[in-house]
# Entry
Amino acid sequence: MTSTESSPERIRPQQFHETAGLEDWRVLGEGACAYFRTGSFTVGARLVQEISGLTGLGDRHPDIDLRPEGVTVRLITITADYYGLSERDAELARRISAVAHKLDLPADPSAVQTVQVTIDALVGPEVVPFWRALLGYQDRANSPEDLIDPHRRGAPFYFQQMDAPRPQRNRVHVDVWVPYDQAEARIAAAVAAGGRLVTDAHAPSHWVLADPEGNEACVGAAGWTGPAPEATSPSDAG
# Structure
C-alpha cells in the first residue's frame, strides 16, 4: 500500500497488535499481513472484489496476492521518509477483516511471513549501487542501506555495516519474519531439523540461527509481547 502524504500518523507494531478488531493480522518486516482461506480461486476473487469496493480508499490500496487456496493482504505506508505502519493501515485492516467475516472466510495468521536478504558490507555506499542496478530495485524511504522492489513483489535487501572483515562466516544471510506468536515454533522446528541457536542476545526482536555447516539466518518477530522462546541446539540438549 502506498501513501503520498508526508506526515502519516505512525504506529508501532505493538500498538497495531493491541488495537481491537485486528486479530486476523500480524506485523512482519514488510508491514501488516493477513491470510484468508478461501478454498477456491473464485471465492478469493470475490473477496478481492469486495475489498476493491471499499469506499474512501483514495491512494491507500493494499497489496493483494490471490491464489486458489487463499488471499494474502499486505498493508504498509510508504512516503519519502517513512516505511512502516500508520493509523490508516489499522483502520483499513479492520475494514478488510469485516469484509472477510461477512463472506465467512477464516483468517489464518500463522500462514503469513516475509523474507529479507541481508548482505554484510564494509563499503556499503559502493556495494549498494551494484545491487540496485542488478535487481532493478530502489532505495527504501531515503535509506542508504535498504533496497526494495518498486513492484513490491521481490524480497527486500538490507546492507548491514561491518567494522572489519569476517572471513570465518557467511556475508549474505536470510531474515525470515514470522508472526510474533509463531516465532517459538519456527525456531524449535529449525533446531530440530539440525540447526542451532547462535545467539538470542537480540530477542525478542530476532534470533540468529545456523544450519549444520554454519550458514546463518535470522528469525524476526515484530511486535513480540511475550517472553523470549527457549531454543537449544542438539549439542546443548545432549
